[in-house]
Amino acid sequence: MPDADPLLTTLRDTFGFPGFRPGQEQVVRALLGGRSALAIFPTGAGKSLCYQLTALHLPGLTVVVSPLIALMKDQLEFLERHGVPAARVDSTRDAAALRQTAADLRGGRLKLLYASPERLGNERFLATLQNAGDISLLVVDEAHCISEWGHNFRPDYLKLARLAKTLRAERVLALTATATPAVAADIARSFGIAPDDRVHTGFHRPNLFLRVTPAPRAEALPLLIERLRDRRPPGAAVVYVTLQKTAETIAAALTAAGVDARPYHAGLESEQRAATQDWFMRENSPVVVATIAFGMGIDKSNLRAVYHFNLPKSLENYSQEIGRAGRDGLPAECELFACADDLRTLENFSYGDTPEPAAIAALTDHLLSGDGETFDVSLIELSDFNDIRPLVVGTLLTYLELAGVIAATAPFYREYSFVPLRPSAEILARFEGERADFLRGVFRLARKGTRWFKLDLDEAAANLPGATRERLVKAFGFLEEKGDLEVRPTGLRQAYRRLRRPASEELAALHTRLAARFQTREQNDIARLRQVVDFAEGEGCLTRRLVGYFGEILPGDCGHCAQCAGDPAAPIAPPASTPSNQTIHVRLAEIAKFAEQHPGALRTPRQRTRFACGLSSPRTARARITKNPLFGCLVEAAFAGVFASAGHVE
């Protein structure tokens, strides 16, 4: 006899689950009641089902925004197995797959569509979404990225609240596994989520055994080999490291010791990353040595051990990464090897991202002092010219939007590259009159390369009768959908409108506020690292202190961590070596002399400090000086100490 509740019927008959897990039903019923919701569930607690089930009981499309391609792939395979029509749009999809997805959207054949935040900056994709009918639900995965003071802030996320209105999404579901109370308040405020619709199921995982082991760098690898070769429980394991080079080195050492291990990091070819991921999901006892690029969206139930060979950069990262273990509810071990060498490396990364105050002022003045009300920029060009990393440039542009001096309009591509998949005569033969003349003109204006043709859209709009940017974009979309062309938009530019031009005194104050904002972000990043150290060295139940960071109060000690089992607290292992003040001074003097040959890349004390600590920048990369022996010559020194000395060495 069928259940009286259609939700339970769908849960059982479509997804094969006998009932809801904690928190899921409250989220689903809020959404079906027409309200937006925030779900703060630990990793593996069933966040995805909240929107998958809801989507099948809403009339329109559900759009899922996620930065995690692995999650999109994994979830799509799950939905396909259960007969739910869904698709994903990301950088790994080929032209034919994207054409089919666009056709399915227009035909109303999809219930769920997964897309990256960056894809929502694509004018063609936005137009396709707006023409696809009603968007009943917009899902924002990894929603903590919207919080400026969170551990993983992404400027694109600040714009999602406005995008929800642009797309006229009827309700929003924000999902995260790592929100502190302050970050949760930021998320709820951005999407207008009422307090009663914020569902937090708690972070305590009784099946995870936490351990912190102080380990000097020379001792950490033998300990890890011993754990994985001789003491690891049956099942899969992940070893998290900070650097790509470390992932390669540790994986090779484990393999040599008889452990079946592979590296995974963003520097590998996409095919190799995909093969490693598939191997990890397929095998019973694989070991992956990975940077944080691995694991997001991966659901392997028998992950029995997670080791942090290096310190995580925040307690949020640590919680998310250990949360991938023991999803089957069985015991899993999570061990952190703690060494101060890692603290120095992570601090240096934080310092290296902070832009120069002079560069902030120059970029701001450039954007606000141009002619006309509108302008467009390339993040790459601004990054190279001002020696600020592209992600930081994006953050600065977002800050200027928040300051009310500029407003983003539609992003666009300067050029479209294309390859004809049919002879041009065959393509043109399907059109008549002005439409045929228009396409003939498009093909004539395109510049031919070795394989790809390139068309500058502004040039074509100015020189081709009847052409506008909008018409050209639609034409390429139509020809791509019909299989006539393979199309690749290039030269992404973000368009803005100047809302006002501050007077000189206000502009100077704006420079100061922006520089202070980046300094505050730097200090917050360093503070989060210190919180990791405090957690590693602190006394008392590890689990209780970890969940307390996220606002959850346990009534007593967990009884299933190393300190509850009797291990005493201990300070983390000291650095292996630290350059002396004299060595720092000598090296900086050598870099100052070398800087005479590269004034643009090494002009300021912060630029020279980055170079000394092995942190590349747009200008050092463009000058091709990162292969010089002086690059990274003080990588074992603390950035703050080198920076303090760099201002006195010329």
Indicate the proportion of strand residues. Answer: 15-25%
**N-to-C CA distance:** 84 Å
Oligomer: single chain
- CATH class of the largest domain, anyone? Alpha Beta
Q: Which architecture name of the largest domain does CATH use?
A: 3-Layer(aba) Sandwich
Biggest β-sheet: strands ordered side by side in the sheet:
3-4-2-5-6-1-7
Number of strands: 19
What does this molecule look like?
This protein is 46% helix and 15% strand. Strand 10 (261-264), helix 12 and strand 11 form a beta-alpha-beta unit. The strands form three sheets. It has a seven-stranded parallel β-sheet, sandwiched between helices. The longest helix is centred in the C-terminal third of the chain and has 34 residues, at 504-537. The protein contains 28 helices and 19 strands. It starts with 5 loop residues before the first helix and ends with a helix. The protein has four domains: 6-200, P-loop containing nucleotide triphosphate hydrolases (Rossmann fold), CATH 3.40.50; 208-341 and 525-549, 3-Layer(aba) Sandwich (Rossmann fold), CATH 3.40.50; 412-497, Alpha-Beta Plaits; 581-646, no CATH class. Helix 16 crosses helix 17. The protein is globular, with a radius of gyration of 27 Å. With 650 residues, it is an alpha/beta fold.
Q: What are the main properties of this structure?
A:
single chain, 650 residues, alpha/beta, Rossmann fold, Alpha-Beta Plaits, 7-stranded parallel β-sheet, 6-stranded parallel β-sheet, 28 helices, 46% helix
Give a concise summary.
By secondary structure, the chain is an alpha/beta fold. It has four domains: 6-200, Rossmann fold (3-Layer(aba) Sandwich), CATH 3.40.50; 208-341 and 525-549, Rossmann fold, CATH 3.40.50.300; 412-497, Alpha-Beta Plaits (2-Layer Sandwich); 581-646, no CATH class.
